[in-house]
Specification:
- The protein is an all-alpha fold.
- It has a domain of 52 residues.
- It is built from two helices and no strands.
- Helix 1 runs antiparallel to helix 2.
- The longest helix has 51 residues.
- It starts with a helix and ends in a 6-residue tail after the last helix.
Length: 85
């Protein structure tokens, strides 16, 4: 095996490692964005419940809550159970 073949092999290995690292980084970004989105839905759900209990709830409370629960269920189906952590 010539030196050129070794260099090509090392370059291919380095490129593969870089692709793997980029993919892992993108996965972490996607997970973070999904958690942030779920947190926003949980906040809106909590606010809707609070306003309902305080007598200032929207007429669409039941529909709003059902939509929030559906969104959170879809999140759990894709990312696993929500936790209070």
């Amino acid at each position: 095996m010539g030196i050129l073949d070794k260099v090509k092999g090392q370059a291919a290995a380095a490129a593969s490692a870089a692709r793997d690292a980029a993919q892992k980084g993108q996965t972490k970004v996607d997970d973070f964005q999904a958690r942030r989105s779920a947190d926003q839905v949980l906040r809106r759900l909590g606010l809707a419940v609070y306003l309902q209990q305080a007598g200032r709830g929207a007429e669409t409370f039941e529909q709003d809550v059902a939509g929030f629960v559906e969104t959170l269920s879809a999140y759990e189906g894709e990312h696993g159970p929500l936790s209070a952590d």
